[in-house]
Design goal:
This protein is α+β, with helices and mostly antiparallel strands. Strands 1, 3, 4, 6, 11, 12, 13 and 15 form an 8-stranded antiparallel sheet that branches. Strands 2-5-14-7-8-9-10 form a 7-stranded antiparallel sheet, with no helix packed on it. It has a 5-stranded mixed sheet with strand order 17-16-18-20-19, with helices on both faces. A hairpin with a 5-residue loop joins strand 22 and strand 23. The radius of gyration is 29 Å and the shape is elongated.
Length: 653
């Protein structure tokens, strides 16, 4: 937005006064410390009582006077619990705290303002005025004029007008004017007061403009979050990068252009390298690009009001050597070390790496591009991939699947699944259990219809009902919460009409996602208060009874920005899915849900193909025999009992 004179984002914990735009802040006092930003991402600063910032705003006299009479201030702010019931100061027009601040939250009733302006009516401010420990985007837009019909000093919270103050004191070059840049003391003070009315506050962004923003502009700024005042569409890419390219060191040389990027429409960039023979069959990953383009704007919130996120995929080098032998290489012993080694050599195109400006190009590209390798295998097994959560690094590893490298849909689905992890999504949406051995707990939530869910990661061509329910998509709505200790059979899951989904407890089965569900297997769907472990799908996983399973809307909660988390540093992988991703064995188990037990290859018929599978596992030739179907639950032996069961259903169903 035009007129931005200063922006401070507090993302550099080692230099909290650093300016993104304008001059660095001047710290007065010692009560400054780095704290977690909004939703745990980005940076923020805690400013204690008695500490404040002087800001050399650099704005010339305007509004028809000798001082700055037109301006806008923005604060992404949170006041902690211990600050409730105390005075909290926002700004002061003096160069030092020699006089009273010009804007407060007062302790008597948590209203906003100052004596000369009057305080907000709490009924007007509503829910905002009393909520501590919550982040808000506060915008104060100011126009000082001798004509009270022209002058205003308005309060907006999260994009909404919450307070219009009286105009009696809003005169040119008066109390609420800022000293101009050519005055003796051209400063505005943040978070300070002359007599200690300045309790602890947390700030994630502070900004100042040399004009009053319009209500429409303030509405576009919206609430607090990853979108800063330099990123109007909130995709983590600054507007100037998307329009002019990135000059990373300010030398006037553009290190990286972003062709096709639009500051009014979300963009997402991924570079892909691949091992020999492991690149996706559709080298454009068209279905994934289309899935992102189809995301409703009601969820992704583009300023241009058009649907979708534009996914830019840059295929680069597809000739990374396959590791040999497969069972004795660093990809098995330390996959992240192997990944980092490849990225160190291959990130960036050949042309970019050959440039004399490569260091600056690399730094710029790391702020924009996630990096993916289509590799062979990792960790000695059949895992389909791994990723940082959130992060910028991920892999697809389908080299040990039946079709080496995976089918088209398996490749596309796994790529979108792992990319989703880097955007902050987990197998249960936002639910996960980080305790050792508990990662499985939310993998199969029936009320989370997303490609992030193990249930929905891959299509199943062997089961027509499930195949018709599968879609390459993140979840678009938050389905109702399901409490495993208080399930309603008439309410069921509350999902999509015409879709089926697998549910536990074991023996797992397919049920309608919309409509009544017989949770307790008693032959009807009329019961209330049922207890059932409905996300327990695999016998290999421990039971997890009495969970409260929440739905989740993926698209509205994606985290785009490539900074603000340790994972974004080179070679740092603090939160990842390396040990907890879909394997071929799990995929095979999921395929069998809803199939006739004797249909060993799940192709809809019991025939010679199934007999061949049984023969191949006869009397213990397989460590995990899928043909061990009799007696019920198996006996860890493929024998005549299993053969008899297969024969009884020959050529069925």
């Amino acid at each position: 937005m035009a007129g931005l004179a200063g922006l401070w984002e507090f993302d550099d914990a080692a230099n909290l006064t650093k300016a993104t735009v304008g001059s660095d802040l001047i710290l007065n006092g010692t009560g400054q410390s780095a704290v977690a930003g909004i939703d745990g991402s980005g940076g923020a600063v805690a400013v204690e009582k008695g500490t404040f910032y002087q800001c050399a705003h650099g704005i010339s006299a305007n509004g028809g006077g000798n001082w700055v009479n037109e301006f806008t201030l923005l604060f992404d702010v949170m006041y902690p619990e211990q600050s409730a019931g105390k005075w909290r100061a926002f700004y002061q027009t003096g160069y030092d705290t020699y006089n009273d601040s010009e804007y407060f939250i007062q302790p008597a009733d948590e209203s906003w303002g100052v004596g000369d302006l009057g305080y907000t009516d709490n009924a007007t401010v509503g829910e905002w005025y009393s909520s501590h420990s919550t982040w808000y985007r506060v915008v104060l837009t100011v126009n000082l004029d001798a004509n009270p019909d022209v002058a205003f000093h308005d309060l907006y919270i999260n994009g909404e007008l919450k307070g219009k103050h009286n105009t009696d004191s809003l005169v040119l070059d008066g109390r609420f004017s800022l000293y101009a840049s050519d005055a003796d003391n051209p400063y505005v003070v943040f978070a300070g007061d002359n007599d200690g009315d300045d309790a602890l506050m947390h700030f994630s962004n502070i900004a100042i403009w040399d004009r009053p923003l319009t209500p429409q502009e303030i509405a576009r700024l919206g609430g607090p979050g990853e979108a800063t005042v330099l990123d109007r569409d909130g995709d983590g890419l600054r507007d100037v990068w998307e329009t002019n390219g990135i000059d990373i060191n300010g030398d006037g040389i553009i290190g990286l252009n972003l062709p096709g990027a639009d500051p009014n429409h979300k963009d997402l960039f991924v570079e892909i390298d691949a091992m020999v023979g492991r690149a996706p069959n559709d080298v454009n990953l068209t279905s994934v690009v289309d899935a992102f383009a189809d995301a409703p704007n009601a969820l992704v919130k583009n300023p241009d009001r058009r649907d979708g996120i534009k996914l830019h995929i840059e295929f680069d080098e597809l000739n990374i050597p396959l590791p040999a032998p497969r069972d004795a290489n660093v990809w098995d012993a330390d996959p992240w070390a192997a990944f980092d080694a490849v990225k160190a050599d291959r990130f960036g195109t050949v042309e970019q790496r050959a440039s004399e400006n490569w260091i600056n190009i690399k730094t710029a590209k790391a702020l924009v591009y996630r990096y993916c390798i289509f590799a062979d295998t990792h960790s000695g097994g059949t895992s389909s991939g791994f990723a940082e959560v959130p992060g910028n690094d991920f892999m697809v590893t389908l080299g040990a699947w039946t079709l080496v490298g995976g089918t088209d849909l398996q490749q596309e689905a796994t790529f979108m699944h792992e990319l989703g992890h880097t955007l902050g999504l987990r197998h249960g949406g936002d639910q996960y259990d980080s305790r050792p051995g508990m990662d499985y707990r939310y993998n199969y939530k029936p009320n989370y219809h997303s490609i992030m869910n193990y249930t929905w990661q891959m299509p199943d061509p062997c089961n027509a009902a499930f195949e018709a329910s599968w879609v390459l998509d993140y979840s678009r709505e938050q389905l109702p919460t399901l409490s495993e200790s208080d399930l309603s059979e008439p309410n069921g899951i509350g999902g999509h009409v015409g879709h089926v989904v697998s549910v536990g407890p074991i023996p797992e089965r397919l049920v309608n996602e919309n409509g009544p569900v017989d949770w307790n297997h008693d032959g009807d769907a009329n019961d209330l208060g049922v207890t059932a472990d409905i996300n327990w799908i695999r016998a290999a996983d421990p039971a997890s009874p009495n969970d409260v399973l929440t739905g989740y809307n993926d698209w509205i909660n994606l985290k785009y920005r490539l900074w603000g988390h340790d994972n974004f540093a080179v070679g740092v992988h603090t939160e990842t899915t390396i040990d907890i991703e879909m394997t071929f064995e799990i995929f095979q188990e999921l395929r069998r849900i809803g199939c006739l037990l004797e249909d060993l290859n799940c192709d809809g018929r019991v025939n010679f193909r199934d007999l061949a599978i049984l023969g191949g596992q006869w009397h213990g030739s397989s460590a995990d025999p899928s043909a061990d179907i009799a007696p019920e639950g198996g006996n860890m032996e493929v024998d005549f009992l299993d053969l008899a069961a297969l024969v009884d259903n020959w050529l069925g169903p």
